[in-house]
Amino acid sequence: MEQLINHSDPSFFEEINYLLAQRLAAKSAYEDVLEMLLEKLESHRKVNTDIGLLLAYGKEAFDEQAMASSSIGYLRNIGHTSSQVLAIIEKLRYELRLLDDEHFENQYSALIGFVDFVVQSWNKLKEIEAVYTDELKYLMN
């Protein structure tokens, strides 16, 4: 079941609670996806410079303490990187022809649900910050 972003609520309690609940399953899926990507890259003798970003993302994205202590800080730090990770995994999925691998697809869909939700939450944060900045500019004039 996919959680929807509540754009009318400026707090991020619902979003962070959802991310905390999905964290372990997404982390497991992330590790499986990364392992399969690395195996395929090695067998195809491909060098990919984006692997460093994927490895660093794994350390930051599933940090329960960061999520629970500062939801805004977590989304600011990991939101943009999440959108890059989505693009990298999607690109490698097509390049390495993993579309027919059922195990990869199952893990991929579990991971993408989490990462896409982070990106949507980050976009909500950017929208709120833009409105707040516009209001401040209006008040300053």
What does it look like?
The structure is a single chain. By secondary structure, this protein is mostly helical. The protein has one domain (13-140). It contains five helices and no strands. The protein has helices spanning 13-43, 51-61, 64-69, 71-95, 102-140. The mean pLDDT is 84.
Please give the structural blueprint.
Elements: H1 13-43, H2 51-61, H3 64-69, H4 71-95, H5 102-140
Core attributes:
single chain; mainly alpha; 5 helices
Largest sheet: none
β-strand number: 0
- Give the domain tally: 1
Low-confidence stretches: none
Overall residue-averaged pLDDT value: 84
Radius of gyration equals 17 Å
Shape: elongated
Oligomer: single chain
Q: Tell me the strand percentage band.
A: under 5%
**Order of H and E elements:** HHHHH
As a percent range, the share of helical residues equals over 70%
What's the N-to-C terminus distance? 46 Å
Output the number of helix runs: 5
Question: How would you concisely characterize the structure shown here?
Answer:
This protein has helices at residues 13-43, 51-61, 64-69, 71-95, 102-140. With 141 residues, the protein is mostly helical. Helix 1 (13-43) crosses helix 5 (102-140) and helix 4 (71-95) packs across helix 5 (102-140).
